[in-house]
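Researcher: Let's run the pair from yesterday's discussion. Sequence first, then tokens, for each.
Model: Starting with the first of the pair.
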Amino acid sequence: MTLKRLILIGLTLIVSLLIGLSLLDSLFQPQAQSQLELYQTDLVLQASEWRDLETEDKTASWQKLLGGEPIQNGLQQYNEMRRSLQKSLEQALKPDLTGGDRPPGLPPALLKQQLAQLDLRIGLLSARADQTQQAQQTWATVAAESTSPRLSDSAQILAGLWSQPPRVLTQAEATLTTTLKGWFRYQALQQLYQVQPQPEALAKLDLAEQAAAESAALRLAVVGGIPTLGGLFGSGLWLFWLVKTGIKTYRQQNSDPATAEAGSPIAATSVPWPSETIWQVMVLWFTAFFGVSLAFVPLLARLLGVTAGSVSPLIQAAFALLTYSLLMATGLTILYVSIRPFVAQPLTWLPLKLTGNWFWWGLAGYFAVLPLVFVVSLINQQLLQDHGGGNPILEIILGSHDRLTIGILWFMVAVLAPVFEETLFRGFFLTSLTRYLPTWSAIALSGGVFAIAHLNLADVLPLTVLGMGLGYVYLRSGNLLASMLLHGIWNSGSFLGLLLLSSSQSG
């Protein structure tokens, strides 16, 4: 056995261990989808306040469209999220079998703070659902147990506003404005202005709330309407394809075998390198990824003083762009050096052609994978019970409100990521696998590795399906631009949805 192979074996073991630990760590973290659903709940609550200002009426059809009872539904969603966080806290406080303090995951202090923030909102939902006693108990718990003075003060202020007789504590308006957002802020301030009373402030608040409600309704229409229409169109494409395939199969079975039409060929570029080169590229890439992510970037962040809580979202976005650009440059260098001995021009070996029908393959592929990923995501969420972690960049996106930050993040996820990840996982890895595996086995394996590379257990099944869709579109079109386009549209759609959902937390 050569020294090169011994090094690759050692790196493979290290990388496998790090991947396993990362996936295990994500198991103890709340699933990002649950947080996004909570943001959507906030939008529904805000939109439910939209009414005809002339008649002061909320139509029954509008309420039904939003789910019938937005406050009751919101209370249920928040309680479910609270139970999930409570389980995470209990798990975090439980010693592991090896004698450690706790299993990996979010620190208990942060989980407790998140629970207190949820309880403030649950109390407001309970109060608006005419469950005042339950609301008072919830706020009393936050006031007594929260280690955050801001959250404790907010709980006491809310309890005073809904007590009998009501009482207004000092700095009530400023504290509630700082602590609460969206629908919850409007409800708390409305109660404050009624208790004091402040008719002029209440009138201004009502106008602001109606503007926010109308904006929330439009955002809900985009967030829910576009994916729904796209999923229906994608389902139609699948139905058309199944019917067409059935007709073609029937004709082939009833025709002369010698003249029967062969199945559509799956295009692939010739692979001149051995299987060891595939192993080398992927292991070195994962090694570089962990080296940059776990060593170089944290060291650079410490030297520059860049942490999530100490710098603005713009600085975080710029740092994330720098990090991804470094990973991209490292990965492309590894790929270039590894295949250079086998092809004279490694860059021209990639099937990138501006001609052909790659655009339509990418666009149709996007609609086709929509319903598949949606169904798998629902199943995945039930299996993991709101755990499995999420992409850390989500927090930056959800906290971003200036155009420059949004532009940097979009460029990273919708341009750089599709170009690099399609080059590595489809252009090189999948193409290489087709030399040694049946086509669908190669598509499935490349899709699975693509999903695992995101290092979140909650993403594994949905991204495997997406990765297989990307692989199929690439091979059928014979053009890497098709899968790059699909990938870019997918990430852009997800990015837009996150921005619209995060609007429920911005005002």
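Model: Moving on to the second of the pair.
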Amino acid sequence: MSLIRGRFEKEADEKVLQYTESISFDWRLSHQDIAGSIAHTKMLAKQGIITAAEGKAIVKGLNEIRQEIEQGKFKYRTELEDIHMNIESRLAEKIGEAGGKLHTGRSRNDQVATDLRLFTKEMITGAVGKIRALQAALLKLAEANKDVVVPGYTHLQPAQPVLFAHHLLAYFEMLQRDTGRFSDCLKRADVLPLGSGALAGVTYNIDREFVARELGFNQVSNNSMDAVADRDFIIEFDAAAAIGMMHLSRLAEEFVIWSSPQFGFIEIDEAYTTGSSIMPQKKNPDVAELARGKTGRVYGNLMALLTTMKALPLAYDRDMQEDKENFFDTIDTYFTTLDVFTGMVKTLKINALAAREALEQGYLLATDIADYLVRKGMAFRKAHQTVGKLVSYAAAENKPFNELKLKEYRSFSELFEKDVFDITIESSVAARNVTGGTAHKQVRQALKAAKKLLGGVIDR
């Protein structure tokens, strides 16, 4: 007979058992469930709700169950539905009647909410650690190539020269915002729901603050109904991961483009590429492509939970069992993607020559020439129009800027002098010496700041 079917005369249908079980995935909460149960037991004993001897027996039994799980000896039983009942049933087998006192003063509703919050807190720390590893890899690649200049693009059209390190540091900034979102999520995940009972609180003289300290929570929940019904912290985690995957997908797209023969700016290591089943010459950026594809999967997990929660009345509803599988999938997908990107970035090779050749195409110095005319006294809108005509002429003549004669320049404006030839790729980069700009000085400062930032820790 199930531990929770005392009022029933019939056992659940086999198909119902299969349909309602969650042990096939919530086994991942086993360590959190045991930690929460140990803290709860210690509190019950401290408060005299159970005897000290009963408390010691329960804690000892739970620690032994933890060892069984770690050693792969624990047998999960589908008919017991979830990890909570599996552990409690095993405890009763090990220590007898005292095991039945573990659940005094709590419900599965506040129990699972506690397990999930403990798990989420751990995953937030894990996410930030993996993001930091990728940031470190990007920073090392940027420092190793801090003098390499590449074309910067808008609309995927050649725009202006930028330092390759500056481009990489843009992703460092995106990743830093990701850590901020996870850090912010931690503030709301760090709330103890245990003690809320099923929805209305409990009738025992419990000490919630003691349990919070035991489990490392900074505060206890203020409303018992909200505590058991809240899954905002998972939604926030999923949202932060979805944005994080979007950032990785953008970087993946750059790698796909840059590694193509038409660009050739980078070479992805063979360990992070695959071949073709029919074309021997192919070296496909499949890791980057899969990251783009898996981004949609993480988006879907976020939308699934939002949809599950959107019309649920207070307090707990069984719909909320659907919070876990997609959550676990998001964690696995996001963490694995961060790991493989870190390895891919560490082994990336830069082709500075190909980048330099690309800089000679697309008239990337057009803005600098317009600024040149502005400094000579021409209004910017007129300078923009003048240089636009100059570009059209040069393209028709199939000449880059540095092959034009001074008289050709002056046919568009008398303001052009010999010093127009001082405008080069290097001068273009150096000229953007403003905070956040691509000038060498600014990028060196940004690299230094990024290195200092990596020594920080997640805010609490």
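Researcher: Give me one sentence on the second I can quote.
Model: The chain has a mean pLDDT of 96.
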